[in-house]
């Protein structure tokens, strides 16, 4: 018997089929299977309809109090709002996380993500009100715990890859050294994409390497800022060494050279008078080494 005809008969007769006497056993089994599949499909469709209706009704029936209660999960407890210090525990250590299962680590990660979002919300609220956040070190503790969880997961992935694949492969996501949209060289993590790179024009607008005169101007100014910061740091270290030699002429040159490798300490010691004339310390009146000279 044709399957399409059998399907139409099943729908028309509401799954009540009477087989003739001369029909084979195989066709009967096939028709019974089709009837069971169709009945299950109808049941699933009815369930999805009822579930969608119930979910939409639940959304409409939500009161403002319920919405406020759900939104308050992004804020700290009300009793901690006016406190200057909130007593909290330390962050999770690697030794404590290594003995936990993967499911426990997944649950703990969800709890930490929720706590981190709450702390970020409280931090932004404190900034908007121009106030100090109570115990801001909680953010650092949560971030350290999340970093330790990620490190434990990487250790387990490395062990699994070494056992199953070999030591040549790594268990982390592959990264490539490429330019970002601002023309800066960055390590970018590779990920799977449904659309190829050359077809995804929307993704290339914000993630393709940056080119053009605007990018070149930005890179030039960025290099100038980095160079000025480096020159300022070297000059401050040079003045600091100069003031140390003025106060302590017998200071260990090797130790000072190891501490400031970018400064020629021996040359400063030999030509101290010239350095004092060239770089007077009056340019930095608020620095510590200038104030110590007045003692």
From TrEMBL:
The keyword Ribonucleoprotein applies. GO terms for biological process: mitochondrial translation. Keywords: Mitochondrion, Ribonucleoprotein, Ribosomal protein. It is found in: Mitochondrion. The keyword Endoplasmic reticulum does not apply. GO terms for molecular function: structural constituent of ribosome. Its main location: mitochondrion. PANTHER family: LARGE RIBOSOMAL SUBUNIT PROTEIN UL29M, RIBOSOMAL PROTEIN L47, MITOCHONDRIAL-RELATED. Belongs to the universal ribosomal protein uL29 family. This is Large ribosomal subunit protein uL29m. It comes from Sarcoptes scabiei (Itch mite).
